[in-house]
What we know:
The chain is mainly alpha-helical. It has eight helices and three strands; from the N terminus they run αααααααββαβ. It has helices at about 20-50, 50-80, 95-120, 130-155, 165-195, 200-225, 235-245, 280-285; strands spanning about 250-260, 265-270, 290-300. It has a three-stranded mixed sheet with strand order 1-2-3. Strand 1 (about 250-260) and strand 2 form a beta hairpin. Helix 2 (about 50-80) runs antiparallel to helix 3, helix 2 (about 50-80) packs antiparallel against helix 5 (about 165-195) and helix 4 (about 130-155) runs antiparallel to helix 5.
Amino acid sequence: MHSxxxxxxxHDHVFxxxxxxxxERRTWLVVGLxxxxxxxxxxxxxxxxxxxxxxxxxxxxTHAGALAIAAFAYRFARQHARDPRFAFGTGKLGDLAGxxxxxxxxxxxLMIGYExxxxxxxxxxxxxxxxTAIAVVGLLVNLLSAWMLGAGHDHDHxxxxxxxxxxxxxxxxxxxxxxxxxxxxxxxxxxAWSYGWSWADPAxxxxxxxxxxxxSWRLIRDSGAVLLDAAPDRALNDAIRSRLEIxxxxxxxxxxxxxxxxxxxxxxxxxxxxPQPVEAYKTRLxxxxxxxxVTVEVLRCNDAH
Length: 305
């Protein structure tokens, strides 16, 4: 009986990203900035009659909500990282948060697109100086937020591009998309103010809706793939096969999926004429980057000659 010393054989199921706590702090700071600017833009767009500014404000509201979801996801994942109820830890909670914020983005994109289209046919008067000033401040807040989140997002741009923290990535691109929408709002207000192009303001609102919809689709696609346990990296699958299929050994079944940022799991069913201990096969995979949890099943081939 080995019940008194099983700790040496137990697996650690903490699959959080290496910069998890730092990313959590950055996200909470950006939540505060974004929420403050969101209120200012929605109020300013309503008071001064700018659809582009109002669209930017509602766009920012989706970011505030998404960023809040991301921040709470970081906290929950950290607090419950060793909770035995989660079979493979809480590393994928960020992907769930990203998926939820993406669905929210899609709904708001529809709302902004509809309101902007209505303004094309039912224009309202706009107080251009005030609306433009608020939009400029919104852009500055977006750029500051992007810089704060970018300190963590930069870690994604290395050779291991499949290690993305999708939660932080979603937050970063939410802010960048909002910065782009702010630029479009400013251009629309200046064009309408200078040349009398009243149609430019709602037209840019429609462009903003399309930007939101585009980012929504990308986030749904990427985070949804993780939630459905899609194979994260074909190269990792190929590396596992090349290291285990030696001689007449063949992999009969291979499952690789993402557990969290920089962490993947693999279940391998290997058929061999001369099976070796499981530890021998795990040793061959030990230095593969991002492979954090490995289960190997070895089957003897009874047809060996």
